[in-house]
Amino acid sequence: MESEIRKKLLNAFTTHQDDYLSGQAIADLLGCSRTAVWKHIENLRKEGFEFEAVRRKGYRIVATPKKVIADEIRYGLKTNILGSHIHYEESVDSTQKVAHQLATDGACEGTIVVAEEQISGRGRMDRKWISPKYTGVWMSVILRPQLPPHRAPQLTLIAAVAVVQAIEEVTGLTAEIKWPNDVLINGKKVTGILTEMQADADRIVSIIMGIGINVNQKLEDYPEEIQPIATSLAIEKKEEISRAQIIQTLLFKLEKLYQLYLQNGFQPIRILWESYAISIGKNIKARTLSGTIVGKAIGITDEGILLLEDEAGVRHQIYSADIDLE
């Protein structure tokens, strides 16, 4: 019950970010006494929220916590579904592992898992993902689309578009997508996306979408061997970025694209994805499990499969590969 009251309180402050809310107005909204309002505000203060209180006007939030706790994410969140339930942890093996268990236990669509640190973060092909504490966005999102399993790869591409749009809106930086799910800035990786599925034979039960964004790391935070190929938003922007704002904007963009996809299919997403893709129209090398193919990337199919045309004019469909620009 307290969690629902807290949600209503933060939603009220979100809706009136530039205004003061009187204690009586908050009490009426929450259906509680002004003393109870004061207690809720004091609890938010303990979490790191800073309030300005003006006699005859009321309260206004003037600063938020440095951590990405649930209440920090809720304050300013403008989604209807994504983030409706927030599971926050200081440290986890991986947010994917926690989200899989929550999904198995019946967590509703839109539930997100956020951690300050991942001990065993992972990316595609079980590669290690470096997730130092208090620096990045380490998050998993639970979706439950009514779709057949073969359409699951499209959701990874939707996530990549949402990440690019969120980065550009919050920071002004230009980000690009490297097929299928890496987001780059100035040719260096800033985001990885790992989409996993729980499914029956004919339908998706849940999609667990893991998103790792390097936000406030410094170059020395990375192992020496990946420093030439990795970056963060703070390195590129040369200033610290609000991780909560990145999460809020990402969830907003992802929800809009997800709804667009469910209503209109993959075609509008495909057009957006190709507009952000770094490899389309360029010569690439695709290293697959069965060998290496060299040619020009000419686009993706409506299933999200990469199309590569070799020197002989033969078109290859790339389902899974490591991609290098020639």
Automatic annotation (TrEMBL):
<dbReference type="GO" id="GO:0005524">
    <property type="term" value="F:ATP binding"/>
</dbReference>
<dbReference type="InterPro" id="IPR003142">
    <property type="entry name" value="BPL_C"/>
</dbReference>
<dbReference type="InterPro" id="IPR004143">
    <property type="entry name" value="BPL_LPL_catalytic"/>
</dbReference>
<keyword id="KW-0804">Transcription</keyword>
<feature type="binding site">
    <location>
        <position position="118"/>
    </location>
    <ligand>
        <name>biotin</name>
    </ligand>
</feature>
<comment type="function">
    <text>Acts both as a biotin--[acetyl-CoA-carboxylase] ligase and a repressor.</text>
</comment>
<keyword id="KW-0678">Repressor</keyword>
<keyword id="KW-0547">Nucleotide-binding</keyword>
<comment type="similarity">
    <text>Belongs to the biotin--protein ligase family.</text>
</comment>
<dbReference type="InterPro" id="IPR036388">
    <property type="entry name" value="WH-like_DNA-bd_sf"/>
</dbReference>
<dbReference type="GO" id="GO:0005737">
    <property type="term" value="C:cytoplasm"/>
</dbReference>
<feature type="DNA-binding region" description="H-T-H motif">
    <location>
        <begin position="23"/>
        <end position="42"/>
    </location>
</feature>
<dbReference type="GO" id="GO:0016740">
    <property type="term" value="F:transferase activity"/>
</dbReference>
<feature type="binding site">
    <location>
        <position position="189"/>
    </location>
    <ligand>
        <name>biotin</name>
    </ligand>
</feature>
<dbReference type="Pfam" id="PF08279">
    <property type="entry name" value="HTH_11"/>
</dbReference>
<dbReference type="InterPro" id="IPR013196">
    <property type="entry name" value="HTH_11"/>
</dbReference>
<feature type="domain" description="BPL/LPL catalytic">
    <location>
        <begin position="71"/>
        <end position="262"/>
    </location>
</feature>
<keyword id="KW-0067">ATP-binding</keyword>
<dbReference type="GO" id="GO:0006355">
    <property type="term" value="P:regulation of DNA-templated transcription"/>
</dbReference>
<keyword id="KW-0805">Transcription regulation</keyword>
<keyword id="KW-0092">Biotin</keyword>
<dbReference type="InterPro" id="IPR036390">
    <property type="entry name" value="WH_DNA-bd_sf"/>
</dbReference>
<keyword id="KW-0436">Ligase</keyword>
<dbReference type="Pfam" id="PF03099">
    <property type="entry name" value="BPL_LplA_LipB"/>
</dbReference>
<dbReference type="GO" id="GO:0009249">
    <property type="term" value="P:protein lipoylation"/>
</dbReference>
<dbReference type="GO" id="GO:0004077">
    <property type="term" value="F:biotin--[biotin carboxyl-carrier protein] ligase activity"/>
</dbReference>
<dbReference type="InterPro" id="IPR030855">
    <property type="entry name" value="Bifunct_BirA"/>
</dbReference>
<protein>
    <recommendedName>
        <fullName>Bifunctional ligase/repressor BirA</fullName>
        <ecNumber>6.3.4.15</ecNumber>
    </recommendedName>
</protein>
<dbReference type="InterPro" id="IPR045864">
    <property type="entry name" value="aa-tRNA-synth_II/BPL/LPL"/>
</dbReference>
<dbReference type="Pfam" id="PF02237">
    <property type="entry name" value="BPL_C"/>
</dbReference>
<dbReference type="GO" id="GO:0003677">
    <property type="term" value="F:DNA binding"/>
</dbReference>
<feature type="binding site">
    <location>
        <begin position="122"/>
        <end position="124"/>
    </location>
    <ligand>
        <name>biotin</name>
    </ligand>
</feature>
<keyword id="KW-0238">DNA-binding</keyword>
<dbReference type="InterPro" id="IPR004408">
    <property type="entry name" value="Biotin_CoA_COase_ligase"/>
</dbReference>
